[in-house]
Amino acid sequence: MNFHLQEVDIIGKLADLKLEHYKNTLAISAVIELLIDKGVITREEVEAKAKQLDQVIPGPGSPTR
What we know:
Elements: H1 3-37, H2 43-56
């Protein structure tokens, strides 16, 4: 496969990943909002857990990745 076709393939794969990321983010947001609406959890609990996990799970750009 020549370089230009490889480039097009990579761009297509990146677009697919971006779409999957959007769908996953939307699904997670919907579940969180439903749990909050039903009184199962509070927004503050979600924010506190996210902050806690952010401290123990390396994120993009962190020195360990």
